[in-house]
Amino acid sequence: MVEERSKETSPACLQYEEILTKRRTYLAKRRLSTALSHIRSTSPPVNFTIRFSPYQLYPEAPKDGEDKYEWYKRSKYNDSEDRMRMYTTLMSAYGAKEDIDFKFGGAVANTLDAHRLIQHFQEKSGPECADKIVNSLYKQYFEEERHPSNEDTLLRAALEAGIEEKEARAFIADENEGLMEVKMLIREQASNGVDAVPYIVVEGKRRDFTLEGAKEVQEYIKILEQVIKESK
Fold this sequence. Notes:
By secondary structure, the protein is of the alpha+beta class. It is 53% helix and 16% strand. It has 9 helices and 7 strands, in the order E-E-H-E-E-H-H-E-H-H-H-H-H-E-E-H. The strands form 2 sheets. Strands 1, 2, 3, 6 and 7 form a 5-stranded mixed beta sheet that branches. A two-stranded antiparallel sheet has the order 4-5. The chain is globular.
């Protein structure tokens, strides 16, 4: 969710449903950030605050995880090495355009603990903190082939977001803290009809805009500008 405020517009918001193990969510996040930077550079300046909502495509994924490359090849491409190679080539090209160096090794695993971390510190420390956590998690998982939600990954993301190490370690170690709240939020997204990601809802003063999939930067800019125009 992104709340938009300026001296000449009323508040609007943009909801960003994210999943931490799908490359197109990273592309959408990077392109959305580029669009927001453009909007913030306009005159008069408009400030947006991103807020994230959790979503899991594979809630039954094991916590320890399994080989990412082999999982994608088996579950998405029927064990076809040729199709998997085409996918990695295509996604690498998409990533390069956004300065993302996609890697395809490491583990695919359950991301519930990562969502716990994001939501807890989004509420406690604010959306900017959550944004930094998400940026770190995406980079670690997609570019550095790290586990998406083990203790080391989560701790690094928290520290890079400016959270004190003692506080971060205590929260990560308590696997029940914030768990029910995150599960309720995930169920809420499903009840709202969300069944794929990235899923972005811009709630304007006059109407809402929904963007599914990773759009190009200019399309995000167009929608944000329309929301600002209609909020005056």
